[in-house]
Amino acid sequence: AQSVTQLGSHVSVSEGALVLLRCNYSSSVPPYLFWYVQYPNQGLQLLLKYTSAATLVKGINGFEAEFKKSETSFHLTKPSAHMSDAAEYFCAVSGGGGADGLTFGKGTHLIIQP
Amino acid sequence: DTAVSQTPKYLVTQMGNDKSIKCEQNLGHDTMYWYKQDSKKFLKIMFSYNNKELIINETVPNRFSPKSPDKAHLNLHINSLELGDSAVYFCASSQGIRYNEQFFGPGTRLTVL
Description:
Chain A is built from no helices and 11 strands. With 114 residues, chain A is mainly β. Chain B is mainly β and 113 residues long. Chain B has strands spanning 4-7, 10-13, 19-25, 31-37, 43-50, 53-57, 64-70, 73-78, 87-94, 103-104, 108-112. In chain B, the strands form 2 sheets. In chain B, strands 2, 4, 5, 6, 9, 10 and 11 form a 7-stranded mixed beta sheet that branches.
């Protein structure tokens, strides 16, 4: 069984500041981890994914995430927030059998203050 | 070109009605999924199909019946709609049955009155 915990349902940062969105996972098998972004009234767009290659993963829009097995974490960061980053962010894990559905965290709403 | 498309985008209906949501993907993927996103934005897998074969059927009432006429389509039919079915339903697709990134459609917002 897998699970994902996202700490902080809402995160507020100033424009230009560091963005840090936290994700911890639990998986009985080596996990594949994903970050998705959802803009208002839209579907989910993949930001980046970890698939057991490099532990530091770079994604779109300047985001990156680091897989830390010892901490069972996959936190998402961006050095400098932009107003357009305001959205809902979901961490997800895939790692069970069969045609895996993703197990999602509850999401973090990122607010960018001018 | 839209990779994963869903129709309709909005669906408003009365309790007890039967409705369908259609999903199509033009990515050539062989696996498709349905997710439900509730009012608190929590996303949960409902079904997955691989090569038209049902693989995952989570704890979903049997009023929900997916149908996959071919690898590019996965439709969701809902019988006897209830208030609690109000949600956003997302279709997704991926290549292969394990570990691959999933591409999501724009969602269908279902409102049951």
